[in-house]
Specification:
Elements lengths: L6 H25 L2 H4 L21 H28 L8 H9 L3 H15 L3 H8 L10 H7 L13 H4 L3 E3 L12 E3 L1 H8 L6 H4 L2 E3 L14 H12 L9 E5 L3 H14 L3 E6 L7 H17 L2 E6 L5 H16 L4 E6 L10 E5 L5 H12 L7 H7 L4 H15 L5 H12 L3 H4 L3 E4 L12 H15 L1 H7 L2 H4 L6 E7 L5 H12 L3 E4 L1 H4 L6 H16 L2 E4 L15 H19 L3 E6 L7 H5 L3 E5 L4 H11 L11 H5 L5 H18 L5 H15 L5 H11 L3
Parallel strand pairs: 4-7, 4-8, 5-6, 6-7, 10-13, 10-14, 11-12, 12-13
Antiparallel strand pairs: 1-2, 3-5, 9-11
């Protein structure tokens, strides 16, 4: 039984025969007279006899040269017949023929490429090239040599628009002053390897891209993403008639899901998927054009697909990156995906937009179960409801927690896992917001019963929203307004920030105060980009956003008188829409409720008014202001409660009094407190009732 011969072996046999034929062709040209160099074919045997030819040869010399050329021509015809038998109808096409077919090379250009490849594959070719050219000082291929060597020469092969130069199949060396026809030609390394039958990614591309298999985050798409997968497959299977393969723009925040979907689509089309960060694309036109053509060439030589990651960045940087990406895409074809938060407009080629949503809470529950291998069952639902994480992040956090605890589990295991999820958004949020170390508890909060009840309702809704939205189906009825937003209004120092800390501490979630200096930008559109990052990161990590002095951001829209008014209104409109679609907890605090836009107030779930504390509340605040371990005398809290101070002022005065007592090296007494209160009133610009303060001081006694 005959053993089947591999394509690689057949290609090696053909290439060996082609190189032998090329050597004979070069030898025939070198042995021929000037008439042969001007285009006589190998089929011509013998040469014209003359008394003396143009090179000064005698009749005898010409006759000997004719006989030699004739024998070489005969060997050449035999070699051509052998090549024809190798390339029979039943044999698969060789590598050079496949390359020529895919890149649109003519038979003449195919022979030129073989000549350049022979220089790398056969050491005898250099000497033959030198002998075949006049004068014999060029041991390398040239356009002039190719035009003299092969049948049906075409002068347009030297054009930059023809395949040899357009696809960078060959490089032209030599100095700029030399004629183009006699400058050395060298084949591209990737193309030479391709002719040999070796198929690998061009080294210039390999330095910029990463194989998707070796990159992290290649998880499987989730069932909820099947619609996106079907749309991607349909776009490639049935492109518009006569159009190029459309670019697939994968939109949304689920980076892992988009990469998994692209990997699955590429595998269905038997393509190798490579990742490219758009940030490293060169901005210089020449470098970008070379990279685009090399990738386009690669997509024609091998079945590859490109996955371009367009990171969410500042408006100015993003605009530059998008402009560079557009130039790259307009100069390159082939299977390509774009991973972007929002659609790239006018990408330079036909495109199809595909939204890829993150796994649903039910799918995230399943992912947690698989990643934790059945441990921590009690908190699967809470994790999936509170944190909006992709499959890769779930796997990472689960592995990190399991590695720390090993086989043990319990309350400490669940707390560690919960804290890890809560901290997952910290790197992004830290650039745009300030993390508050929430330590206040319900016992520290002094408010009327009505306000306390509203604050506890906020905690209840955050804690049980998974049951209401997912298990009871409210999320399927409405798509907006699923988050929880609350407005805390009241004078400064009435406990708004402390209430936010209490809620964060009770829910065991991170609390971030928005830093307006990091969010608001003078550049058009950049404020919206920063806010989008802020809300997206908070949704992923379940963080509570605390907008202190929110009237600075959520103020009333004004009449448009100039461009500044228009863009300010655009920012407010974006905030109104984003706060409604935000799926987490947002707390907004202001002491100027009337300055807020009425449309914004309508979108709030809770409005909690923090009243100025009365005498009873102030007495309670004074009692809670001093730690139990602090040495102090008997204090008259009833007298202190009569001082008209807010909770914040009381805490500030208590801290100042403690420092006065520490400086005096004695327990805290009423005199230190009254001194601190006098300072606090002066800071507020309020008149000091010395009679009231003296009365308290006299009763406290002098020391």
């Amino acid at each position: 039984m005959n053993t089947p011969v591999s394509w690689e072996a057949q290609n090696a046999v053909w290439l060996s025969g082609a190189l032998a034929w090329l050597r004979l062709r070069l030898a025939w040209l070198a042995e021929s007279d000037p008439d042969a160099r001007r285009g006589a074919t190998p089929a011509r045997e013998g040469v014209r006899a003359a008394d003396t030819d143009a090179d000064g040869n005698t009749d005898a010399d010409a006759s000997a040269a004719g006989e030699t050329a004739g024998s070489t021509a005969a060997a050449l015809r035999a070699s051509e017949a052998q090549l024809a038998s190798i390339a029979s109808a039943d044999a698969p096409p060789n590598a050079l023929h496949l390359l020529a077919h895919r890149l649109g090379l003519s038979p003449f250009e195919e022979n030129v490429l073989l000549l350049c490849a022979a220089m790398e594959l056969d050491t005898r070719v250099a000497e033959l090239c030198a002998r075949a050219q006049y004068p014999a000082v060029r041991p390398y291929p040239t356009f002039a040599l190719a035009l003299a060597l092969f049948d049906n020469p075409a002068w347009d092969l030297m054009s930059p628009e023809r395949p040899l130069r357009y696809w960078h199949l060959i490089a032209i060396g030599g100095g700029e002053g030399e004629p183009l026809t006699v400058r050395p030609l060298r084949i591209d390394e990737r193309i030479c390897s391709c002719i040999k039958g070796l198929n690998y990614l061009d080294v210039r591309l390999a330095a910029l891209v990463t194989h998707a298999r070796t990159a992290s985050g290649t998880s499987r798409p989730q069932p909820s993403q099947e619609g996106a997968f079907a749309a991607a497959v349909e776009a490639w299977e049935s492109p518009p008639e006569g159009s190029r393969l459309p670019l697939l723009q994968l939109l949304g925040t689920d980076a892992a899901g988009k990469l998994a979907l692209a990997g699955r689509v590429a595998a269905g089309f038997r393509s190798e998927l490579y990742r490219l960060d758009a940030e490293i694309l060169p901005e210089q036109p020449a470098e970008l054009d070379l990279l685009a053509r090399l990738w386009h060439r690669e997509s024609m030589l091998a079945n590859v697909a490109l996955y371009v990651e367009l990171a969410d960045r500042d408006s100015a940087d993003e605009a530059r990156a998008v402009a560079t990406l557009r130039r790259f895409l307009s100069r390159s074809e082939g299977a390509c995906f774009i991973d972007a938060r929002d659609r790239v407009s006018k990408p330079g080629r036909p495109s199809v937009d595909i939204d890829v949503a993150k796994p649903t809470p039910a799918e995230q529950r399943t992912l947690w179960s698989l990643a934790l291998r059945g441990r921590g069952v009690r908190i699967y639902g809470a994790l999936a409801t509170q944190f909006d994480l992709d499959a890769t992040e779930i796997s990472r956090l689960a592995a990190q927690t399991l590695a720390h605890f090993g086989a043990s589990e319990g309350e400490a295991f669940e707390e560690r896992l919960w804290d890890a999820c809560s901290d997952s958004a910290r790197p992004t949020l830290s650039h745009l917001a300030q993390r508050i170390d929430a330590r206040a508890e319900w016992a520290d909060l002094v408010l009327p019963a009505e306000q306390l009840a509203l604050l506890k309702q906020i905690c209840v809704q955050v804690r049980h929203r998974g049951v209401v939205y997912e298990d009871w189906g409210f999320a399927r009825k409405v798509s907006r307004g699923l988050g929880i937003s609350a407005l805390f209004s009241g004078d400064s120092g009435t406990g708004k920030t402390m209430a936010a800390e209490v809620i964060a501490n009770d829910l065991r979630l991170s609390l971030y105060r928005i830093d307006l200096s990091s969010v608001v930008s003078k550049y058009i559109g950049e404020t919206e980009v920063n806010l989008r990052r802020l809300f997206d990161a908070a949704e992923d990590g379940g963080a509570i956003l605390f907008f202190d002095e929110c009237d600075a951001l959520f103020g009333k829209r004004s009449e448009v008188k100039d461009s500044h008014d228009r863009y300010a209104n655009i920012e407010i409109n974006y905030l109104l829409q984003r706060i409604e679609s935000f799926r987490g907890l947002a707390i907004l605090a202001t002491n100027m409720r009337t300055a807020l836009d009425s449309a914004f107030v309508r979108r709030l779930r809770f409005v909690v008014n923090f009243p100025f504390p009365g005498v009873a509340e102030r007495k309670c605040i004074w009692e809670k202001a001093f730690p139990a371990q602090m040495p102090r005398e008997e204090l008259d809290f009833a007298r202190l409660a009569r001082l008209n101070l807010s909770g914040g002022n009381i805490h500030s005065a208590a801290l100042s009094a403690a420092f006065l007592a520490a400086h005096a090296c004695q327990p805290l007494g009423m005199n230190e407190i009254m001194t601190a209160v006098r300072t606090e009133l002066g800071k507020l610009g309020r008149p000091v009732n010395e009679g009231e303060l003296r009365l308290v001081s006299d009763q406290g006694g002098a020391r």
